[in-house]
Structures are given as structure tokens and as C-alpha cells.
């Protein structure tokens, strides 16, 4: 008989994401040889408070999983900064100093993390950039307090850029980069990844509901705005990272009509629409056969694709 045996933590990640109209949850398990498997996803509508969240935690048995939560697109900022020439243990302090005049709130009120952007191989003279992620301390504390009150043990706070990166990494052409565009209630998110690393992140101020609003003229104006933002961002990326070939733009699942064809006609690179069933095993979550459900759970599933070696 074994006493004080630790409860087994199930491999993979269970992610909880908070939306204006509810909470989404998804659990994804990576497999050795096959596609990552979405074991389940769940939607809880309404304004979910601590009591309801505690019930959700019990229903999902969150204590048996590695759990993460996903911030909303308006909860933080991502800023490109030049990498400071300091020892690793001084990096965050140096980055914090560089951000003090770049944030729209006081840097002392910020929780900061740093994402490295790899430099061009065999080009040591090029500028080494990093992506700094800054969230208000109050946002982080409120989220962790809400989950803590519900007795949900979260060990990771993630952001949509990294969630989208995780899905893009499943689709990258060998030796090439990938541009991906998604939409939700916070607006559009463009990312460019290469070899599984995030190189570019751009927000487009067009909430998903706006894609279907108004008549033909209004939708055309919205599509024009998106196209212009994409062209500017991709041109900037090409100038900065000329050694990375980005052969296509992939549109994340969404239910609005017209945009894929419009972008395909007005951008200089091919445009493809993503069906999550082509990169993930969704047999255990049949609701994901609906593009609207794929859109709802897209970033939650992406965050649950988090991959790191865990020692228990």
C-alpha cells in the first residue's frame, strides 16, 4: 500500500477562456504519431461568477488536469522591443525599463513577460528583437482570484497570440513561415510564425460581428480596412524578415461570408480557409464540425495545445 500518493495529472492542458457572453473550456492531448486530439470542449453561457465557476470546475474535474487560462485581447499589450544586452537574469528588469514610455498605463502596474524572436541565421549583425507582453497587475490578480475562489488551480496564463501560434505551427510549410488571421469579439488577430516561433502580431480593430453588419457598401468598407491592414503588416514583415518566405495567409474558422474571396482577390498571396478537422482529431468533439463552433473555441483550443515537458 502506498500512502500520500500524488493524484495523477492527466497529460495535456485544459484551458478556460472568458468571453463577453460566457466561458469556453477545451482539453487537448498531443499524441506521439498522430494529430493532437480534442478530447472535449464545453461552453457555459452567461455571466459566470465564482459559484458557477466552481460548479464548472467540479463538472470538468479540473483538479485532474494541468489548467491554463486565456486573457482577452484587450487585457494586455504586445510590443516589439530591441533585445537589451544584459545577462538573462536581468532581462525582465531591462525590458521593463524600455517599456516605461510605451505602455498606456504605468509600468509599475504591469506584469511583464518576454518572448524571444530568433535572429536571422548567419547574420549576427542584425537587430535582435523581442516581443514584450504587458498586462495590468489588476487584470492578472482579478483573474487568478476568480479562479482561486472557484478552487480551480491554474498554473499558466496565456495570450491569444501564443494560442494562435500553436495552431499555426501545425500547418507551417517545411522551411517557410505562415500568416494566420482570426476574428472574435475582440477584433482581428494577424500572426506570422516560422519554425514554431511567433515573429509578428498585429491587432485589427474589426470585431467578428462587424464582418456581417450593414449592406454591401458597409461590408466592402470593412473588408477594405482589413485588406489594407494586412498589406501594411505583411509588407513590414517582408522588409524586416526578408529571409522568411510566407507563401500563404490562412483564415481561421469563422461564419461570415465574403471575406475569404475578397482577400483572395485583393492580396498578393494565396488565401486558404482553415478547417480544424484537417489538423486536429475532433472525433471526440463532434460539435466542432460546425464552423461557428470552431470559431468559438479556436483560441481556447489553441491555448490547450500548449506543449512543454512537465515533470511530476
Query: What is the arithmetic mean of pLDDT?
Result: 92
Order of helices and strands: EEEHEEHEEHEHEEEHEHEH
Instruction: Pick out the low-confidence regions.
Output: 1-7
Overall 3D shape: globular
| Residues in helix, % | 25-40%
Quickly count the helices: 7
N-C termini distance: 20 Å
Structural class from helices and strands?
alpha/beta
Global Rg: 20 Å
Strand numbers in spatial order across the main sheet = 3-2-1-4-8
Strand percentage: 25-35%
Count all strands and give the number: 13
Characterization of this structure:
The chain is built from seven helices and 13 strands. With 312 residues, it is an alpha/beta fold.
Provide keyphrases for this structure.
312 residues; alpha/beta; 5-stranded mixed β-sheet; 7 helices; 13 strands; globular; disordered N terminus
How is this fold's topology laid out?
Elements: E1 10-19, E2 22-29, E3 37-45, H1 50-60, E4 65-70, E5 76-82, H2 91-99, E6 110-116, E7 129-136, H3 137-149, E8 154-158, H4 160-168, E9 177-184, E10 187-194, E11 197-204, H5 216-240, E12 249-251, H6 259-266, E13 271-273, H7 291-304
Parallel strand pairs: 1-4, 4-8, 9-12, 12-13
Antiparallel strand pairs: 1-2, 2-3, 5-7, 6-7, 9-10, 10-11
Helix pairs in contact: 4-7
